[in-house]
Amino acid sequence: xxxxxxxxxxxxxxxxxxxxxxxxxxxxxxxxxxxxxxxxxxxxxxxxxxxxxxxxxxxxxxxxxxxxxxxxxxxxxxxxxxxxxxxxxxxxxxxxxxxxxxxxxxxxxxxxxxxxxxxxxxxxxxxxxxxxxxxxxxxxxxxxxxxxxxxxxxxxxxxxxxxxxxxxxxxxxxxxxxxxxxxxxxxxxxxxxxxxxxxxxxxxxxxxxxxxxxxxxxxxxxxxxxxxxxxxxxxxxxxxxxxxxxxxxxxxxxxxxxxxxxxxxxxxxxxxxxxxxxxxxxxxxxxxxxxxxxxxxxxxxxxxxxxxxxxxxxxxxxxxxxxxxxxxxxxxxxxxxxxxxxxxxxxxxxxxxxxxxxxxxxxxxxxxxxxxxxxxxxxxxxxxxxxxxxxxxxxxxxxxxxxxxxxxxxxxxxxxxxxxxxxxxxxxxxxxxxxxxxxxxxxxxxxxxx
Length: 450
What we know:
CATH 2.40.50.100, six-stranded mixed sheet, alpha+beta
């Protein structure tokens, strides 16, 4: 029986593969070297460094406090009859807030008036007695003069034996009695004068008692000492209150204008003074005291404030001094004890160099640097000394000169020494933060960030 067998021939396949490989190699060798293209020069976006005049500002945290605050307390003790205000409302100075029962104070005033009237009548009686005493003195002086004349006559007559010794003795005695009576009347007059002085003092005392009673009666009407917004009432009708009690009846706070108190470290204060003395910063005249606020939600308060003063005492626990500012608050947007951030002007820097923050890189050690395009169009690395962040830019203290072209975009594709093609940088593509404008006013934030 005949069988058909299929025989596999590997050398034939190897020959075919070798032929294809040789063909490919020959095709590659036929290509010209001029057909291979060079890698393109990378493009980078740059900004040209130019010194500019800027207003340097400092952002400090702080809290608001009322412009004026008054705790309402009673000045007399009594029963609260009425509460005459709405809690949380605005009140005017002199507006009636509480009414204390006036009945006992009205009675005290009437009693004081009666005592004054009695003192005045006593004074009138003392004046009448003084007038009578003066008349008695005048009459007694005349009587004394007559008695002395009679005594002289009887003494002369007695020498001539015209009268008896008894008659002469009677005349002498009458003169002596007249003298004693005159002295008594004069003493009475002096006593009457003292009685009038005492009566006038009693009148003054009674008048003072009337004024005191009238004042106490007025204190039963508890009025607002200042204009402002009044808080909740701590007492209700029917409550007994005492004069000058520790717990206030209510509290009034004036919110327009309003204070903002922020702490500033003495280290920063001394640094600022040194920079001003060296001329690195300059004051901007009256505009130097203008300040702004950033609210808790990151928005800019629309009204401008004024720096009032720096405290002269340093808090030993924090090493800072308090800066007090005043802001208008017509709509009561700012409330007491609200957390805010104040933007304070430090001074004007005329030759400031700013670079976008996105252009600054860091070495593994954290040192800042930028890439610049050199004169030959090649990339160079420049180490920087940075100051502060102003919006979306860094204030450069050292490392750059006017005219340097700083690479802002395309840094990932280049290395120092590589040639690059420069294209202008479009700053409108990036958001600008709240840097100080030409007038020192910060731009309003739109992202709500800190």
